[in-house]
Specification:
The structure is a single chain. The protein has one helix spanning 2-19; strands spanning 46-54, 64-73, 84-95, 98-112, 118-132, 153-168, 172-178, 203-211, 213-214, 219-231, 236-249, 253-260, 264-272, 277-286, 297-306. With 322 residues, the chain is mostly beta strands. The chain has one domain: Porin (Beta Barrel), CATH 2.40.160. It has a 14-stranded antiparallel beta barrel with strand order 1-2-3-4-5-6-7-8-10-11-12-13-14-15.
Length: 322
């Protein structure tokens, strides 16, 4: 049984290394820019978010990653509405011998449909820096002609671009993002150009949405979902979704629970601790056979809002629910 689970973990890592060129975060509700460029500027002010994630702790070579994002509207903050917004992100993930670092710039154009409803269109462009330390592999066949185990790959640029659309109203949001449209081959210098041993970037479609129910002046509930579908001409990754229910108290503290269809459950805590600063923590527990071989997944976030005119925003500053 142990050998079976270890084999399952190995194939899971292979799938991540070959196909998952997008970031995967439990606190997706506070990290929408990474999978939908149309979200840039949605908070109406400039904000910085830092994320860190350690997946399947206790297993050697399990994925670890982090990101830094900044975005905000362009123009004078004295204007009631600024339609153009921009942003930038650095996201890096290491899984096994492979490291992917994404450097992305974002631009969105927002249209005010009415007092509470905004429709946004977004574009992103940048590159993935791909690295692979093949020398750390310990293959059964040292003479495998499809892989040169002595040749490492370091920071190979893979240019890419993406697009998205985001709609937000008084009590709801919905979005569709495709952050990577180009399906680059990870190692263009492989011996067999028709072989998929080195893998290709997978075009991933993200569909998200949520709705806020006001239970009382103190309590609000927000069910929300993030669905992912990834496919290219070589293989198709299984459809998966995060189904989340979050409870907000005084719009300053949030506790949430998520079921991920690829067999895990998550808990989320989030708090707006000052006008400018928010913090969050999430814990993932695997429901698959891997649960007995790891200590769970830990994720944290810290956010900072640049508020130039404090009288323009509510005091104390509330959580931006979407």
């Amino acid at each position: 049984m142990k050998n079976f689970v270890l084999l399952l973990f190995t194939f899971t890592l292979i799938g991540i290394c070959k196909g998952q060129n997008y970031p995967h975060y439990t606190m997706f509700m506070f990290n929408k820019l990474l999978y939908n460029p149309a979200y840039a500027g949605n908070k109406g002010l400039t904000t910085i978010n830092v994320y860190g994630r350690r997946q399947w702790t206790g297993i050697d070579g399990a994925p670890t990653g982090g990101s830094v994002t900044i975005d905000g509207p362009i123009g004078s903050y004295m204007k009631a509405f600024r339609p153009v917004a921009a942003g930038f992100s650095v996201n890096s993930e290491k899984a096994g011998i492979v490291t992917n670092t994404n450097l992305m710039a974002y631009c969105s154009y927002r249209i005010k449909l009415n007092t509470h409803t905004t429709l946004s269109f977004g574009l992103q462009a940048g590159t993935t820096l791909y690295s692979a330390d093949y020398s750390k592999l310990n293959p059964m066949d040292q003479n495998d002609p499809t892989i040169n185990y002595s040749r490492d790959v370091s920071n190979v640029p893979l240019p890419n671009f993406g697009t998205g659309v985001y709609l937000s109203g008084k009590n709801y949001y919905a979005g569709l993002g495709i952050p990577f449209l180009v399906q680059n081959r990870y190692d263009k210098n492989s011996f067999n150009s028709n072989s998929d041993i080195y893998g290709k970037q997978v075009r991933t479609y993200f569909l998200s949405g949520g709705y806020i129910f006001t239970i009382s002046p103190v309590v609000k509930l927000e069910p929300q979902v993030l669905m992912r579908y990834a496919v290219n001409d070589m293989y198709k990754l299984p459809f998966n979704a995060d189904l989340n229910l979050s409870c907000f108290f005084y719009e300053r503290f949030m506790i949430g629970a998520t079921y991920r269809t690829d067999k895990s459950i998550e808990g989320v805590l989030f708090m707006q601790i000052t006008n400018n600063v928010c913090i969050g923590y999430a814990y993932d527990y695997a429901l698959s056979d891997l649960r007995t071989y790891n200590n769970g997944t830990h994720e944290f976030t810290v956010g900072f809002d640049f508020i130039k005119d404090k009288n323009k925003y509510m005091n104390p500053r509330f959580i931006k629910l979407f």
